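Hello Y.,

Per our agreement to keep a running log of every chain we model this quarter, I'm adding this entry. I've kept the format consistent with earlier entries: sequence first, then predicted structure.
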Amino acid sequence: MLRLFTSLQPTAYGTRPACPRSGRRRGIAATEFALLAPFLASLIVGMFEMGRAMMVKDILTNAARKGCRTGVTLPKTYQNILDDVNNILTDNSLPSSKATITVQIASYTGTSTTPSWSPYRTVSNSSLYNPKTLDKVLVKISMNVTDVLWFAPTFMSSTAIESETVIMLRQG
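Predicted structure for the entry above:
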């Protein structure tokens, strides 16, 4: 009479049924983990990188908002905008020297009944920064991903993280 799985083998913790296939299945869990570990590790690293990218975008947007607010306040200058943006970036441990800060102005050309603005012109120094009342001031900041992400991605080396474009009207 053939009796499979019914005989008992003594172990350190008591007895267990004898299984003729137990020797072949012993390394399956280790093999499965070895196959899945690289996938799981890359998934976790990718989550860290996406979290960092979203955090950096939020910091850049806050810096652009602060710079734009400074730009529409009297009697602030182009250098005041750059100083405020660089202070926000430095306070958040981002390299301000690697940031590209774009400041543009659209002059108000409308009337009291029909608002309109001229096309944006880029400002690159204090002598060109002269917004008047109701002019639009635009501030946008970008940084290369290799300068801000923790695990420098070689497949995204030419990609930049940009802030939201912040536009405000100069008052009074």
